[in-house]
Amino acid sequence: MHEKIIILDFGSQTTQLIGRRVRDLSTYCEIVPYNKFPFGDESVKGVILSGSPFSVNDKDAFKTDITDIRSKYPVLGICYGAQLLVSESGGEVSQPDSREYGRAHLNIFDKRDPLFAGLPQNSEVWMSHGDTIVNTPENFRLIASTEDVKWAAYKIEGEKTWGVQFHPEVFHTENGTALLGNFLDICGMMRDWTPASFIEETVKDLKEELGDDKVILALSGGVDSSVTAVLLNRAIGKNLTCVFVDHGLLRKNEFETVLDDYEHLGLNVIGVNAKQHFYKELEGVTDPEQKRKIIGKGFIDVFEREAQKLKDIKWLAQGTIYPDIIESLSITGVTIKSHHNVGGLPEKMNLKLCEPLKLLFKDEVRKIGLELGMRPGLIHRHPFPGPGLGIRILGAITPEKVRIAQEADDIFISGLREAGLYDKVWQAGAILLPVQSVGVMGDERTYENTIALRSVTSTDAMTADWSRLPYDFLAKISNEIINKVQGVNRVVYDISSKPPATIEWE
């Protein structure tokens, strides 16, 4: 088992960024709820306490006793985490006259402190907190301040415990990655977590866990399920059966293309055309969550039917990745969207669940795929949602709307490839809006549909920015969609970032 850093999640929006920065430093880490510390796990070498949307003084604030953790491991408290350490040690945290938010410059008093080794004086940091540390116990040593924040960083004497009120994980903190690297050195981390080591360890674990059991895998044609399939194939070979379902909401010609792509991987794949089943179940449904649930149930129904044709299946494998889990279940109790994998199937069919990528971010999955020798074209495909065009067709779904969305999407994606732009964006697609508008084609008045083009840049899907595609390119694509896709007379471009928007529209 790889040595690891544990990140205790107190509900901050940037908790996942801490994980990303630690992983970027070739160090394995896991994010766990603030009250679920894995005591007894000998692979844990250090602990990071995240920020939080709460004040430590709120009666509903997420709190847990850090005393035992502090006595056993190096600890770094970030923002709320730093304030919690002060509060539970008998210090004072209170709300200043104005909220401390934005860029600040760090004045380091103790340059010999190992957490700040090599960091330059006056480097820029990012503040984002409503409370501030006012008083600390005597054994808290001040390390750094900003113009407005006295206790910007401290160390607890007699312990390997530090607190910083700024956010080293965010891009705006100039030397944040270096500070986190110093903390990893304090923890004695080897920094040897690489794609090759992940594959070796995961294949070994899969062989031990699965033995001679048979596994069924839901293939979507995307990167996540494909890498999952290759990993499992390397571990258990012929005991893996993959099922690729055409729910009628795939991209144009996707069913045939994906089956061709899998031939070179040597996978045992069953293709199922279930278009009519899904169209019938989705008829008249407009609510996006309801659509997701119907599509999820449809997968369960199709999988159950296919699995019953096979003998002795004991496991269901899925290409679940970290953002899926994070967005499906928040410790604050707010679900952003339901998880798109076939969630009800394991219980219904008495199957155990196998999710070998569930602790990886998307860019890490791609690195694993390339290390496995998979074709770059398959690895670098844009993410495509499990419910497919079901959540890119806003409102009720019909075969005619699917045709329009598929054709518009095909023109957009093909255009990106031809213009050399496809690999420069993270994800792109066409959204069919439930909006009709007046247009003129030839000498005739039209009243037809609107297509919204969506293209974003990202590294891990947790945050995303809209792509600055060239105007000439957008004009060409708009013109081609309107001229070639019957039923469309208007094309718009989405310039929203995540957050506050999401990448998909539903």
Explain the overall architecture:
It contains 15 helices and 21 strands. The chain is α/β, with parallel strands linked by helices. The two termini are 39 Å apart. The chain is 33% helix and 24% strand. The strands form five sheets. An eight-stranded mixed sheet has the order 2-1-3-4-12-11-10-7. α5 (195-210) packs across α12 and α8 packs antiparallel against α9. It is globular, with a radius of gyration of 25 Å. The model is unreliable at 332-340 (pLDDT under 50). β10 (140-145) and β11 (153-156) form a beta hairpin. The protein has helices spanning 15-24, 67-72, 80-88, 176-186, 195-210, 223-236, 254-263, 275-282, 288-309, 322-328, 345-348, 362-371, 376-379, 399-418, 471-484; strands at 4-9, 29-33, 44-49, 75-78, 92-94, 100-105, 107-108, 124-129, 132-135, 140-145, 153-156, 161-164, 214-219, 240-246, 269-273, 313-317, 352-354, 427-441, 444-457, 465-466, 488-493.
Order of strands side by side in the largest beta sheet? 2-1-3-4-12-11-10-7
Catalogue the unreliable spans: 332-340
Question: What is the chains' assembly state?
Answer: single chain
Q: Supply the helix-strand structural class.
A: alpha/beta
Mind describing the biggest β-sheet?
A: 8 strands, mixed
SS element count, helices: 15
Distance between the termini: 39 Å
Strand content: 15-25%
Instruction: Output mean pLDDT.
Output: 88
Overall helicity: 25-40%
Rounded to an integer in angstroms, the radius of gyration calculated over CA atoms is 25 Å
| Number of strand segments | 21
